Structure formats: structure tokens, C-alpha cells
Amino acid sequence: MIRLVLAVCLISAPALAETRVVDGDTIHVDGEKIRIMDLNTPETWKPKCMAERMLGKRATAYGEELAPRIERIERHGKDRYGRTLARVKLDNGEDWADAMIKAGLAVPFECPKKRCPPMTDWCGG
Question: Domain extents for the chain?
Fold first, then answer.
């Protein structure tokens, strides 16, 4: 009986994954590079200006708050850089992209048929 209870607990327990937030729209989960779909956040690597760098750091920090709340990852293929494209759902049912956009740290970003719009100018130019 104890073995059965233990087995049920192990099956129903959420998988513990090592998650690293690279920036507001990219995470690494157990070494898998994931580009979160439906948003664009400011760059932290090679930003075009100080404003973009600072906003990118804020988006990354907010992502670090969201990461422990990841409930599931819905994978949708790969991007041109080999990253997994995915929608990330949080423990309250909210989408990662929606949370970032609501916080003012991202903009909606979709690439229908691999035709992406121009990237956002975070420097106000």
C-alpha cells in the first residue's frame, strides 16, 4: 500500500526542471533553449541604447519572478537559430507573453508564415 501511495505521489508531482531566464522572451529549461512565442522584449545582449538595456534588465528580472510559476510548455517547432518555439503557461493559467505585455515589458510579436514584422525600436528613434 505504501508503495502504491508513493508511486501515485511521484506520478502526480510536477517535474522539477532547471530553468534559467536569458531575457524576457528566452529561457533555458534543462539545457533546452526556448524562444517564447507571441512577444518581443528589449535586448540585453547588444542593445541599441541604454534605455533598451535597462528595460531589458527589467524584463529579465520579471521573467525570473515568472519562471518558478511555469506550469507547462507547449512546443511548436524550432526557429532559425535552433531554439524551441513555445508558449509558456503559468500556474494561474496565464500565458508568459500576456504577463510580460501587461507589465509593459514586452510588445505583441507574431511571425505568420515566417514573415516577421520589424523589431521594436526600444530607443525611441
Answer: 16-113
